[in-house]
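Milestone M4 deliverable, item 7.
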Amino acid sequence: MTDALGEYIAALEPLARRLGLDYHGVDFELVPASLMTEIAVYGLPVRMPHWSFGVRYIHQLVRQSMGHSRIFEVMFPGNPCHAFLMDGNTLPENTLVAAHVLGHADFSRNNALFARFHEMAGSNIIEMAAAHARRIDRAIEEFGQQRVETVLDAALALESHVDVDRPLHREPYPAHAPERKAPAKDAFRERFERLPREAQPEPPPVPRQRLPVPPHPEWDLLWFIAQYAPDLEQWERDVFLAVRAESLYFYPVFACQIMNEGWASYWHARLLREADFLPQDLYLQAIKSHSDVVRPFAAGEQSALAVNPYHFGFTLWEHIVEKHGMERAREVCRDEDDFGFVRNYLDRELAEKMDLFTYQARSDGEVLVTSRDLDAVREAILAPKFNYGAPRIAIAEFRPDGTLVLSHDHAGDGRGLDVARANKVLEYVQRVWRRPVRLVTTGGLREPLELAA
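Output delivered:
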């Protein structure tokens, strides 16, 4: 940390508190570009080893070399929060980024979805992920790279398939249905039982009904396999539970991306505007960086086919504060995720101002605007966020012969399956389930389709 940046951060924090930001302390650290890219790709400073992260790392390097991606910071909520800033950023850029991080820290402490998942995980994801990585390293030493990688292949292929409405720590299903309670006695029944009559033998006990497994469609595939896979060893089950814990940690980041980036952008702009201790030339350069971050589309372009979450979220928060006041904005920050945020606060005026539309890309490369209907625009923005961006798959049946039957909720999620990818995932799952695995979905003409491994 340079002396000047440390001084500016030390002055920004009390300003943020005076303006009403409420957050756990933040540990700032300057890191080189290579480490920053690694942290961004892995999602955490230390994480379980797997070849898929190497593929993502190469993809990120290619994007950076083409000028399509630049990482300014990576911030991890918790108590304390951990923020990594790029040592190659200019002083004005890192000053803006530090203010941006304070907005993230406020959001993550006060948003109900973040608070729920942090409470379950103990607000120590970095330490937890490091412990997972150490256990997997020990498993590699004991059982070999190939065997451990087989389990990780399956677990990471299913990392999006968690039930975010369930707690981190779940008990197995009850084996039996609850006992039926005897009906409450009323005055008539009590008089009837006092009538003189011959003694009746006690009725034989009714055996308790054994519940099927699963007793209902189970959306948490990682948890189910960890609990019920017939032949997994304990260390293999632990791998599935580790991937599940990290996936649940990342869900609020995914589900609140527009809100969170918009909130941080709103506050970095406001903090810089009110930070009278910043030199004028640094402030102007920082504001130039702000304009680059929150513009709706790339320089030289007239429109964009994808929403920039920084611009979109920033615009919505400015609109909410202007129209409803900061107190209402804080209530929205606390109670909503991106689904409620977009559906409740993207109005027709804003949609027209931001020139939002839905479109269809033709095979010849031509793009056709299909609708400017407000509901259609909202749902098009939110569609990739439904169910963690993955097809909605449930465990439907665990047959007596050990066959695992999965079902695809194609009507609910509105998406078809990429059959080649689905077959590959089934292959991964079958290697750890070690019994037949089947997936019921629909084909292109909505006819029933069954995939098997």
